[in-house]
């Protein structure tokens, strides 16, 4: 019954989508006002997709195993929370969520854009509906979440235990809100091109959508990193894993776009560049979905793949790229731009975009190069952290300095550039402090000093800028957050320490400065898994820390996950992870000291808060 | 007596030395295995994994180090056995030329575009 309701709502939504495409194109052609009808139709489409999503949710909650998606991805013994999150923890459900958000944003766009040009509005809805239609067809023909299993199985196959985690339960929806938000940016910029509507009004509208996507993407990426940090069990938070890269690419693009729109808004410059960025952001989000879903990537996330579906997304993607290219080259006839000044905010933003695009190209090339190389020459290579570090870190140095100085520049400025004494003093100070920090590294002092000083410099400048009345609060806060992020990431990677040893219960071992004791292990049965909690004591300089890391043995499907025990304070994380060694009584115990972890998360939140403040201001 | 003392010192020195070299060697194993992909895991390095494959590779590395192999010899050996896929840092050679050069090329290209824009802007004035 549930399956039928869900399925038929989707069919109806599909029909409505075609109607909207037709109607919106008609209103665009005839330049009429958008009528009440379209609002009714759009909201009923959203309503239908909502129903469809809710039925799937209910099927998961009530463990309706006659549904194929539920059968494959759920189990009646799972806690309710993970039954719910199981709805989007699989391919079919996650696409339905994409669709739901797409139509929700379509509706919000319609309601919020009443002040804008009518032709522009209807054409944006037209493009947005083409995307919605594409997704509906995709869901319908390749990944229908409402397929039946006959006869109805008694029990499901279970959700991958590694995904049964609070951070990961909300990570996909948040990330999707970010990805899908970029769809509006895409539709709106295509439509603005056609309607010749690339102006200040459009810029401030698109800025809101850019901010929305950017906030969700920032938080989504952060949640994913937090999850990787404590769940995957090796104490890192960023692995330059292809799927992480795929979420970072639209983020870089959005960040560039965010800065670019203010130039458009204030100076009416960089029109075609803004459009290119807007289109690429969505294309990157879509390619991300394609790469993750198609199983081309080899990564921690390979639980979410299926090669055949990739083809459909690839065709759809090519179609969207073609449309945008045609529209771009047909309508890209911007008249002469305003004069820009060399030492101005505009130049600083252009340079920001320049570096952002460089970082983007490194991430993009590093991610897709191995795929193409393998397809063409059958040679299999890995592109891992050393590649990204080598190409990105040297470029961070000028980037950070420009980021420190850029915000203070005026939009229009005479050629005299005054250099303030405080800035020079701060610069010398940062070099000196960096030297103090790194001097006990015997080999790499010069290199590390050069690396750390600009990040400290940015930090000092952004702290001082916090008091500057002239700058926008959103911008100050985000830059401040970013400077903490960079400083903490660098210091974290420099000063992390770890020791690892295999011990039996009752044994202890001295490793460099640390004495590790494996005291005890207790076994308890919880809901759908067996928990093995080890008691590990770590002694350093007569200070004893007790840790209770855990191993979880899941029965359906049979998997072992490892939960780190993390002791967090503002400046230091201490954590112990244990791992099961096959066919022995030994546990592999790994103790890690990771400075500034908490600051990394806090700074990411600061970034997002800065974005939210900006958004609130724009909506006023 | 003196000979005994010498023996003691020698033993102490030797123990110390062997502990020290074992420590340095561990560091080296850590460094190398962090740059190796665990072939049977999903997105884990050999260092981070406790799979049988990873453990055997770690033992292999420390044996090679003890027998006096250099770092690059170990990488070469592993690459010839398992292919380039195992190393996280792609080599710079004919087939990875674009991988290393293309981003830098794009950076320069972007810079030129900006310079061109500035010059055009100047000429308007």
Give your account of this protein's structure.
The complex is a heterodimer of chains A (620) and B (125). Chain A is α+β, with helices and mostly antiparallel strands. Chain A has three domains: 158 residues, no CATH class; 254 residues, no CATH class; 102 residues. In chain A, 63% of the residues lie in helices and 12% in strands. Chain A is built from 17 helices and ten strands. In chain A, a hairpin with a 2-residue loop joins strand 2 and strand 3. With 125 residues, chain B is mainly alpha-helical. Chain B folds into two domains: 88 residues, Helicase, Ruva Protein, domain 3 (Orthogonal Bundle), CATH 1.10.8; 35 residues. In chain B, helix 1 packs across helix 2. The N and C termini of chain B lie far apart (95 Å). Classes of the chains: A alpha+beta (620), B mainly alpha (125).
What does the secondary structure layout of this molecule look like, with pairings?
The complex is a heterodimer of chains A (620) and B (125).
Chain A: H1 2-30, H2 36-61, H3 68-73, H4 80-86, H5 91-112, H6 118-142, H7 166-194, H8 200-231, H9 242-267, H10 271-294, H11 307-331, H12 345-377, H13 385-405, H14 421-438, H15 445-465, H16 473-495, E1 497-503, E2 508-511, E3 514-526, E4 529-540, E5 543-547, E6 550-554, E7 559-563, E8 565-568, E9 572-580, E10 587-595, H17 597-619
Antiparallel strand pairs in A: 1-10, 2-3, 3-4, 4-5, 4-6, 6-7, 8-9, 9-10
Helix pairs in contact in A: 1-2, 1-6, 2-4, 2-5, 5-6, 5-7, 6-7, 6-11, 7-8, 7-10, 8-9, 8-17, 9-10, 9-12, 10-11, 12-13, 13-15, 14-15, 15-16, 16-17
Chain B: H1 2-34, H2 52-66, H3 71-82, H4 97-124
In DSSP terms (H or I, runs of 4 or more residues), the helix count of chain B works out at 4
What structural category arises from helix and sheet content of chain B?
Answer: mainly alpha
N-C termini distance of chain A: 46 Å
Biggest interface pair, counts? A-B, 41 and 37 residues
Q: Note the total helix count of chain A.
A: 17
- Rg on CA atoms of chain B, Å: 25 Å
Approximate shape of chain A = flat
Count the E strands of chain A. Answer: 10
Class based on secondary structure composition and strand pairing of chain A: alpha+beta
Mean pLDDT of chain A: 85
Amount of helix of chain B = over 70%
**Largest sheet of chain B, if any?**
none
Name the helix and strand elements of chain A from N-terminus to C-terminus, one letter apiece: HHHHHHHHHHHHHHHHEEEEEEEEEEH
User: How much strand of chain A?
Assistant: 5-15%
Helix and strand sequence of chain B: HHHH
